[in-house]
Each structure stands twice: as C-alpha cells, then as structure tokens.
Amino acid sequence: MRTHIKHRLQGPPGAPRGDCDLNPGLSEALPDPGELTPAAVLVPLVDRADGFNVLLTRRTDHLHDHAGQVSFPGGRAEDCDCDATETALRETEEEIGLARSFVEIVGTLDTYRTGTGFIITPVVGLVTPGFTLRLDSFEVAEAFEVPLSFFLDPANHQRRSLVYKGAERQFYAMPYDDYYIWGATAGMLVNLYHKLKR
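The structure assignment produced for this chain is given below.
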C-alpha cells in the first residue's frame, strides 16, 4: 500500500477544487485566486501494522473560525515558509507536536478553495509510528485516527446540504463514530479517494 500511495501521488496536481465543486454558482462569489490567502494542511497517513490510518484533529470550541470542526493540522502560510510543504510541517508541529522526522512527504492533492477566502494545499505525508503528540490546547481539542479504508469506501461519502446566507449549499460529509467530518476536510478526503482509486 505504501508503494501504491507514492505512485498515485506522483505528478502535478489537477485543477483546483473547492466548495464550488458541489455549488457551481458559488465560484462567482469567491475572490479571484490571487486574492485568496495561501494555506496548507498535512494529510498524515499513519503506517500502522493493520493498515494506514488518517490522523485528524478536532478544533477547540472557542475558536473564531471553524470552532469544534474536524480538520487536518495546518494553517495559513507565513513569510518564513519557503513552500506549502514547509507551511504544513511547521503548522503540524505547532498544533499537535508531530515532529517532521516521522513524516515522509509523498505528494500533494489538488489545491482547495474555500468560501472563507483561503486556497489550501493539502500535503500528503506517510507517518512512521513511534511519535508522541503534544496538542496546542488553545487550538486543538483532540487528535484521533480513522482507518484510511473508511475514506476509500465510496459508501461512506455522503452529500448533504444546509442554508447559508439565504442560499442552499451542498457539501460532503463522512460521519465516523462520534465525529462529524464535513466541508473542506471531507472534500479533500474525496480528492484523496479519487487520487488513490483512479
């Protein structure tokens, strides 16, 4: 599986994806790509004995943006970052204490444009077990793992909707146990599914 993942993630990313994938009319309301704030997340695939797991976080409930939501570790790019990989690794170390020495970067998913004004580069890393996490208690309520096989089963990919600012918005959701994985995180996981299953 490790070789398969590496092979599938080689080559340049595809066309940008985002919240407008399921909401074509939303693209007109989004800022131009050059006006979006660059950000990056790490998509950590932990190489466990019984298969790969996806390491995710749940944001704390008091945050201004996306409070309580499930997400990948990551954040906005800083001037000190030379590229998206550096942003993803730095933010991951700051948020959950996962040392980059345990992470082998194997590629990126397609960039993801959000309705909140970000353009996110999802950086995929294979994580060797043996790490110790140290969560930033201000930003991260908990970290948990979900079997990659769960996300690679299209039966677990749901399409739901809500009314936001007077308009109906479609989004992906992948509920797992007590965790509600949706929005941009679920959209990136759908992209990962297509990359690995194509």
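Interim note for the steering committee: The chain has four helices and eleven strands. Residues 32 and 102 are 36 Å apart (CA to CA).
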